[in-house]
Design brief:
It is a single chain. With 204 residues, the chain is an alpha+beta fold. It folds into 2 domains: 2-114, no CATH class; 121-203, Lipocalin, CATH 2.40.128. The chain contains 5 helices and 8 strands. Strands 1-2-3-4-5-6-7-8 form an 8-stranded antiparallel β-barrel. The longest helix is centred in the N-terminal third of the chain and has 22 residues, at 41-62. The protein is globular, with a radius of gyration of 18 Å. The model is unreliable at 1-18 (pLDDT under 50).
């Protein structure tokens, strides 16, 4: 954690990305999503935020004691895939909403997975009445609140979703944790998709 925090502090001393326009060259915009971002100050700001988060994540990945080269390569590949997904927003009924959601979700993913900030809280859940069946959630105060979910040796991320009660964080492939007080329902990602009834064991 100290390595991560020192990297973040060092990054904060670097010149900030220009505060006008997105992180990319608008003269080279090729997709409808990029053209929209170049014309929308709020989306341009989100683009700068995600670019800064991605740069910080690359620094953390590159400083890993083992597997740094692969981690950096995988992160770059995932980011390219995310950009491709963002550009697919032209298919959505509301282009702007789709692009905005893509950025909000991606910021949360980068922060939560790479621990770019200290979590605002951590909760330990015992599921199905078995102390060995534990889910750990860490929460982050990103633009769209996000969570890091740890179960066994698997780490995933999720974003806060609108719900009528409690707090629900949705991840990829149908994964979610829906928290209501000291109880939660945790659903595994597809293709497993198993749901577990969990109770709060401890939190900080």
């Amino acid at each position: 954690m100290r390595v991560v925090l020192s990297l973040i502090l060092s990054l904060s001393c670097l010149p900030a990305i220009a505060q006008e326009g997105p992180s990319f060259d608008c003269s080279k915009a090729t997709s409808s999503a990029e053209e929209l971002i170049c014309a929308d100050a709020d989306l341009a700001k989100l683009d700068r935020i995600v670019a800064e988060r991605f740069s910080a994540a690359l620094s953390v990945a590159g400083a890993l004691d083992a597997g740094a080269e692969k981690a950096v390569a995988d992160l770059r590949t995932y980011q390219r895939g995310w950009i491709g997904g963002r550009d697919e927003c032209w298919k959505a009924s509301d282009l702007r909403s789709c692009v905005e959601q893509a950025y909000l979700t991606r910021e949360g993913q980068l922060v939560a997975y790479w621990m770019l900030e200290e979590p605002t809280g951590t909760a330990f859940w015992t599921c199905d009445g078995n102390p060995a069946n534990e889910v750990v959630t860490m929460f982050f105060d990103t633009t769209l609140p996000s969570a890091r979910i740890e179960r066994g040796d698997r780490v995933s991320t999720a974003s806060l979703s609108p719900t009528g009660s409690g707090s629900r964080y949705d991840g990829d492939f149908g994964q979610f944790i829906w928290i209501k007080g000291d109880e939660a329902t945790y659903r595994e990602p597809d293709p497993d998709g198993t749901s577990h009834a969990c109770v709060l064991a401890s939190s900080n």
